Amino acid sequence: MLHTDLHQPPGAPVYVGPKHDHTVSVRMTQYNAHELIETPLPRQGVVAPSRRDAVTWIHIDGLHDIDLVTRVGDVFDLHQLAVEDIVTVDTRAKSESYGDVVVVNVKRLRVPTPGEGEVDDHHITLVLGDHWVLSFVELPEPVFGQVRARLRGNLGRIRGMGADYLFHALLDAIVDEWRGELERLEDAVDALEDRPLDRFDDGLPARVHGLRRQLLTYRRGAMPLRDAVANLTRVEGPVQAATVPYLRDLRDHIVEVVEGLDAQRDRVQAALDLRLALASHRMNDTMRWLTVVTTIFIPLSFLTGLYGMNFDAMPELHVKWGYPALLSVMGAVAGGQLVYFHRRGWL
To answer: Which residue has the higher pLDDT, 119 or 197?
Structure first.
């Protein structure tokens, strides 16, 4: 993490996050039902769109360039707090309305290996205005690749809809990626449940702990985004009535993700509890047999110890049938104990 002075006035943009050295890129896409124009922009070339007959989408890869983010905020007259949220990568998912502008902060979450390591957490901010959308991502990633493919191929209704529908499509792309990651986590939980029950894997607790941490990280990202999308359905201005049903459907998808995360977390805990219970049962079974064997040999050890004492005056020392008699007594004692244990259900 960067060591940055956080004692700044409210609204001051301060990037607090991992250090990145990649070149920040800016790309502008303008489209309507009849044409699509994609243009890379220089850092100083970001200007407010003048076309009213097309939707303008400006995508910025990189949040560590504070000067660029601040300039874009000035060009589009974004609120200072909105600019601050763009570069604050550790902020939670939320939506804010500033007049005719809506800002949504969300996380792109990726699992390198289910059950191992931490979840990759990258900050994304989407800004919706009148006929334009801004997207800020922390790292150059193909999260919006399917949206671009739909625009280029004029697939679906996206080219015939407004900027608010593009705004929904970008959010939907993030949630769809979450759903794909959830399927990977579900496969990992299935593999966990399919492990043999006849032995306890020493690496199981660590894997369960890793899966639970990853599921919890996703849940912490999904819960506030659910509320943020629900707020978008009540926003007046840039969100048109025709797009509200799609936002409601998106909220339902997020609810499905949250419910799926809760279900997988319960399955992980149940798998661990089952194996711990089986291990405890096997240990108890082993201890029971050891106890039975020990209990049988306690009186036998007493008898052998008694007749193993070196005293000449012991009357049984010179009895001809003393040794077979002692063995018979020991056998009768052991047999009697076994019968007693069997009747009590201990064997």
So the answer is: 119
